[in-house]
């Protein structure tokens, strides 16, 4: 005979009620059926668990201990079932997320903050790399989800969706004559030297920025190229160059740098943010993506 969850439930309810009639009512079964179930349980356990009297039942010493253990077993089973269902739905478990370096200072803190509130049982492992390396990691099943700025070539086997856009701004040395401006146009800086991101690291971003320069009526005097945001801002801090950046770069409070929004046509929604995952994603990927709309409006 098996010690089934139903049998444990019947005993724990009877142990709480100490009355067959009330326990049977709670269990939605007949009193004789409950009595037979308890007798079957006592045969399985091999000891008397209850003393039956005219006014109800009392637990034996063994019965009291067994009732507590039975309740613990039922609680563990219930928790295991709930956890399995949450993992299957994507609301719990573990997910591996990659992102490009420029997202580390603004986007990822907001992602982690939103998930801590909305999906507290979901653990996130983070990895940072280039867009191309992140897509390759998805192919190799080293990541479940990636956030990138530019879509690499040969990524047709991935599911890619745009989840938001950011405004272009300019990063100026603090000593620059226009560093105190509330807004600027690119044409205000056509006499300056520029540092730009390399085409190899973010080709789409470079393409969009060069289009904006042409629309502003000039091509920048490029003094240097940088592979990532920290290198870019290093040049700006030196006082040698200005650069185009995301508006959220201002959140970095990078020493010696002032970030000013641009007024040029197309600057407001110039910088896309993409989410990339395999066609059949981990359940947590879809759960996480449901919360990405909070990134651009909430503080970490």
Compose a concise summary of this entry:
38% of the residues lie in helices and 23% in strands.
| Helicity, as a percent range | 25-40%
Distance between the termini: 55 Å
Strand-residue proportion = 15-25%
The number of distinct β-strands equals 12
CATH A-level architecture of the largest domain: 3-Layer(aba) Sandwich
Largest sheet: 5 strands, mixed
Q: Order of SSEs, N→C?
A: HHHEEHEHEHEEEEHEHEEEH
Shape: rod-shaped
Name given to the CATH homologous superfamily of the largest domain: Periplasmic binding protein-like II
Question: How does this model look, in words?
Answer:
The protein has 300 residues and is of the alpha/beta class. The protein folds into 3 domains: 5-89, Arc Repressor Mutant, subunit A (Orthogonal Bundle), CATH 1.10.10.10; 92-164 and 272-294, D-Maltodextrin-Binding Protein, domain 2 (3-Layer(aba) Sandwich); 168-268, D-Maltodextrin-Binding Protein, domain 2, CATH 3.40.190.10. The protein is 38% helix and 23% strand. The chain has a 5-stranded mixed beta sheet, sandwiched between helices. Helix 2 packs across helix 3. The chain is rod-shaped and about 100 Å long. The relative contact order is 0.15.
């Amino acid at each position: 005979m098996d010690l089934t969850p139903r049998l444990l439930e019947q005993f724990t309810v009877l142990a709480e009620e100490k009355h067959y009639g009330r326990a049977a009512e709670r269990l939605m079964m007949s009193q004789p059926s409950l009595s037979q179930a308890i007798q079957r349980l006592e045969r399985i356990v091999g000891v008397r668990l209850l003393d039956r009297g005219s006014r109800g039942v009392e637990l034996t010493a063994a019965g009291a201990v067994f009732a507590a253990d039975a309740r613990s077993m039922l609680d563990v089973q219930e928790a295991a079932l709930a956890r399995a269902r949450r993992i299957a739905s994507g609301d719990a478990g573990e997910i591996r997320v990659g992102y490009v370096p420029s997202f580390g200072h603004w986007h990822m803190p907001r992602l982690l903050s939103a998930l801590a509130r909305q999906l507290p049982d979901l653990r996130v492992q983070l990895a940072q790399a280039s867009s191309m390396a992140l897509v390759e990691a998805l192919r190799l099943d080293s990541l479940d989800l990636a956030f990138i700025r530019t879509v690499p070539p040969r990524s047709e086997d991935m599911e890619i969706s745009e989840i938001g856009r950011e405004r272009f701004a300019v990063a100026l040395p603090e000593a620059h004559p226009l560093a105190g401006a509330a807004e600027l146009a690119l044409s205000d800086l056509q006499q300056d030297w520029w540092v730009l991101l390399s085409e190899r690291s973010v080709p789409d971003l470079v393409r969009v920025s060069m289009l904006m320069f042409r629309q502003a009526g000039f091509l920048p005097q490029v003094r240097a190229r940088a592979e990532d945001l920290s290198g870019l801002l290093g040049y700006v801090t030196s006082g040698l160059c200005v650069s185009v950046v995301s508006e959220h770069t201002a959140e970095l409070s990078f020493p010696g740098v002032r970030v000013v929004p641009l007024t040029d046509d197309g600057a407001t929604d110039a910088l896309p943010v993409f989410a990339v995952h395999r066609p059949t994603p981990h359940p947590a990927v879809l759960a996480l993506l449901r919360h990405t709309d909070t990134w651009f409006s909430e503080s970490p």
